[in-house]
Automatic annotation (TrEMBL):
Species annotation: Flavobacterium sediminis
InterPro entries assigned to the protein according to its UniProt record, in alphabetical order: RHF-like, RHF/RaiA
CDD domains, sorted: RaiA
One Pfam family it belongs to: Ribosomal_S30AE
Phylogenetic lineage: Bacteria, Pseudomonadati, Bacteroidota, Flavobacteriia, Flavobacteriales
Protein name from the UniProt record: Ribosome-associated translation inhibitor RaiA
Length: 100
């Protein structure tokens, strides 16, 4: 699976890219037909401590799953998004199986 990581309003470091690739790579064990993933990391201009937004779009055949999380750190947001995507992929896989 190809993971595209894009940073908006800041420069991304290699550790964060590696962490993102590692976390999203685990999604393939829940649904093996994932085409690609796009990850958008943003720093919102607010005085809130939770100003880091992670948006993940996962493309599967015939559909696109989108998760958006706002947290204190990007790592926390990626973890949270990965857990949500895990559940979504399992549900999607069950739906696909129901049609077969």
């Amino acid at each position: 699976m190809k993971v595209n990581v894009q940073a908006v309003n800041f420069n991304i470091d290699k550790k964060l890219v590696d962490f993102t690739n590692e976390k999203l790579g685990k999604l393939e064990k829940y649904f093996d037909k994932i085409v690609a993933s796009d990850v958008f990391l943003r720093v919102e201009n607010t005085s809130d401590k939770e100003n880091k937004t992670v948006e993940v779009k996962v493309q599967v055949p015939g559909d696109e799953l989108v998760v958006k999380k706002t947290c204190k750190t990007f790592e926390e947001g990626i973890d949270s998004a990965e857990e949500s995507l895990e559940r979504m992929l399992v549900k999607h896989k069950e739906k696909v199986r129901a049609y077969l």
